[in-house]
Automatic annotation (TrEMBL):
Signal peptide: 1-18
GO biological process, any: fungal-type cell wall polysaccharide metabolic process
GO CC annotation terms, alphabetical: fungal-type cell wall
Coiled coil location: none
Protein name: Asl1-like glycosyl hydrolase catalytic domain-containing protein
Organism taxonomic ancestry: Eukaryota, Fungi, Dikarya, Ascomycota, Pezizomycotina
Keywords assigned: Signal
Limits of the Asl1-like glycosyl hydrolase catalytic domain: 65-306
Organism name: Penicillium frequentans
InterPro entries linked to this entry: ASL1 (IPR053183), Asl1_glyco_hydro_catalytic (IPR024655), GH (IPR017853)
Length: 309
């Protein structure tokens, strides 16, 4: 849907009662409104990347990935490396950088978790590291939880222009990782996810995005007339239809017993692998009592289901 310029010109005076504008100034405002509206409603991912071989290599891998950290006695990627030898698992990220010794059989994807306070040479070095094909942006900037970046849309857009866009010719760039749960989760600006994303895109003029990154958390049995897998699939589909970009699901989990989670994975993993628009996904998370057993020396039942289904 495109708003006719003449229509907006006809109603704009109603929006600026009490203000005095010259006609050229009004027309300039209209042009900006139309530009930002069109950008949201008809948003298409675009890229000026020149390294086509690098970008192609980034897509010719298994979709399944690992969301891990270095919180273990050895302060490394030991838990993630338990998935070595499972060919359906091909990549990992740790909400930051470096990789903490992630095995060479996995692609490591660095993330800029939040807004740096100034120049960040370590981030630049991480992106420039040989083998880096994709980069992830801010972690849940639309939320206020302690583990979320909580960034206002305009500030996030400015951050993308400073810290992400300079690498557009080298790697594939993801949009910020937002919660896509069909819920009104609020950020510091009291935006829900859809509003936050709309305002972010409106401010991030000239930004290049190769994929959208989303999170999903919900009960395995939500009790709302849908099964957990149905709700999950609907949310992923909605994200793709809204953003018109390949989808990375960088965190997802259904809340329930081990048996319920195994059943959930057995139903959704084949579906994810069948969807051409889903490029990558990572179940939460590579920690003891999640995808790793409580002793930390092998995969849990959930981890085995994730690695082998």
């Amino acid at each position: 849907m495109i708003l006719p310029r003449a229509l907006v010109l006809s109603v704009l005076p109603l929006l600026v009662i009490g203000e005095q504008f010259e006609i050229p100034a009004v027309e300039a405002i209209v042009d900006k409104v139309l530009h930002n509206y069109s950008k949201w409603v008809n948003f298409k991912g675009h890229s000026s990347h020149s390294d086509t071989a690098k970008r192609s290599a980034a897509t010719n891998v298994a979709k399944r990935g690992l969301a891990y950290n270095n919180n273990n006695p050895n302060n490394n990627a030991a838990y993630a490396n338990l998935f070595a030898g499972y060919p359906k698992v091909s990549w990992g990220y740790d909400w930051g950088y470096p990789s903490w010794g992630l095995g060479s059989n996995f692609e490591f994807v660095p993330m800029l978790w939040g807004l740096p306070s100034g120049s960040d040479p370590n981030w630049t070095a991480a992106v420039d590291t040989a083998g880096t094909l994709n980069i992830l942006g801010f972690n849940e900037p639309d939320l206020t939880y302690s583990g979320s970046a909580n960034i206002l849309p305009a500030n996030a857009a400015a951050g993308y222009k400073t810290y992400m866009e300079p690498f557009a010719a080298k790697v594939k760039i993801g949009m910020p990782n937002v919660l896509w749960n069909n819920v009104g989760s609020s950020s510091g600006g009291n935006y829900d996810t859809a509003q936050w994303t709309q305002y972010f895109l409106g401010n991030c003029t000239g930004c290049h995005f190769d994929f959208a990154a989303i999170h999903w958390y919900q009960d395995c049995d939500p009790g709302n007339g849908q099964s957990g897998p149905e709700w999950f699939q609907g949310n992923v589909t909605e994200a793709y239809q809204t953003l018109n970009l390949p989808i990375w699901i960088t965190e997802f989990e259904c809340y329930g017993s081990d048996a319920q989670q195994v059943t959930f994975l057995q139903q959704v993993l084949p579906w994810l692998d069948e969807q051409s628009y889903v490029e990558r996904y990572a179940y939460f998370g590579v920690f003891p009592d999640y995808l790793v057993n409580s002793a930390g020396n092998g995969l849990s039942n959930i981890g085995v289901a994730y690695a082998t289904t």
